[in-house]
Amino acid sequence: MTVPRRMRRLLVVAAATILLAGCQGGFPADPQGTLDRAREGVLRVGVSENPPWTDVADDGEVSGSEVDLLTDYAETIDAEVEWVPAGENTLAAMMREGQLDVVVGGLASDVPWTSEIAATRPYTTTTGPDGAEVKIVVGVRPGENALMTDIERFLAERGGEL
Amino acid sequence: MNGSEGEGGEEATGSGHDAFGEEQRETLRRATRLEWITIAWMSVTVALVALVAGQSQAMRAAWAEDVLSLLPPIAFLVAARRIRKRPDRRHPYGFHRSIGVAHLVAAIALLAMGGYLAIDSAMTLVTVERPPIGLTVLFGHAIWSGWLMVAVMVVTSIGPVVLGRKKLALSETLHDKVLFADADMGKADWSTAVATIAGVIGVGLGLWWADAAAALLVSVSILRDGVKNLRGSIGGLTDGEARTYDDSAPHPLTRRIEERAEAEPWVGEASARVRDEGHVFHAEVFVVPVAGAEPTLERIAALRDRVDELDWKVHDVVIAPVPELPPTQTFRSTLRTGADDSP
């Protein structure tokens, strides 16, 4: 049950690699490279209608506080936003297929699509129908941790936490 | 316990506590203290890991492992209390077997832990679930949650490793297999920590599978421990031959008991059945007197006392004089058959 010396050496190598990666600012990294792709490119954002966070007009035009939020975020990485309005379960399916990067729609932190949508840390709260506090999050493609931490940093700075 | 003083040392039977010498009593006290510290430490760990675990598979598995690792210390403490009771009409063999039951509980905790971890991480790999590990804001600073997990793993694994080493030393003195299993698990905790840390860092590097692969690796070693302890505990509970505290070999006391009996001038042949009751052994010694020698009550009583004096673990001794060794009840100590190479 002891860890052999070789594994310890491996750990040192791993630690050195991380330090290097950390210096380059590529840590944590995206397994699918989403943030790198979106930077100076296109960020694909699914919108589930849920006013006042998000609203979809008859002509497909999107608006709402979270649409503004993501527009501002996209600016920080010089990305164009491609809005994809649809129902929540369609968006979850698209996320699973890798057709979306982010989902907004006043999602609660206990969003049920955990294997399709990863929740960021809550950036604001509201009150649910039962009077309990609901934490509002943005949905990110699971495992794309560079994109996730970048959005979380943006949300925290905007919310005055940082 | 009260009322047993003065009698415990001389009489072969009594509570498990009476069997102990001063060294064992002190060891049990220290082991009990260590187990209380373990429970306190693990409770804090469980709370801390739950706080930072988030979506990391390996961290969630480490948490489940920590919860389950509370079971062996609890089982030990319950058993240590039970063995203080003295045998009575309804429990003629005493309460020593509580230790065996606690060992079984510890073994099943290990198995459950390893099984849960293996299935959970294999599922993650098969369904390609990429663990999201985001940001934590700590005192106005943004820090990747992965680093917090690494820090918590480092800090929380110190306790079990240090406590495990201490308990391992005590388990031999006490001949306590629960304590041994628990200590072994604690000592292994640091390899769990290393694997978990490697997994989390791997995720940070963009290797989504690193986390689950690390958990799978850890689960294999836990499962192996579980199986080993399950075999050991069931072996003890089903009256298998008494084995050493780590179940690595047949216990040498069986041979010593037979040799002690054969050292009596009136004894020709002797064979002992020795079973591990938990801490202490029960021995039935079959003796065949040499031709012409009379197995008098005095001789039998004297032999019983001498066997009893061999070791504190020899707790309940029955001497059975027989005209010849009954082949279905007596078997040479496996240590001796190995040495003799007899048919």
Automatic annotation (TrEMBL), chain B:
It holds the Pfam family Cation_efflux. InterPro entries: Cation_efflux_TM, Cation_efflux_TMD_sf, CDF_Transporter. GO terms for molecular function: monoatomic cation transmembrane transporter activity. Gene3D superfamilies: Cation efflux protein transmembrane domain. The chain crosses the membrane at residues 34-55, 61-80, 101-119, 139-163. Its main location: membrane. It is a multi-pass membrane protein. One of its GO terms (cellular component) is membrane. It is found in: Membrane. It comes from the Bacteria. Keywords: Membrane, Transmembrane, Transmembrane helix, Transport. This is Cation transporter. It comes from Candidatus Brachybacterium intestinipullorum. Residues 38-234 form the Cation efflux protein transmembrane domain. Residues 1-24 are annotated as: Disordered.
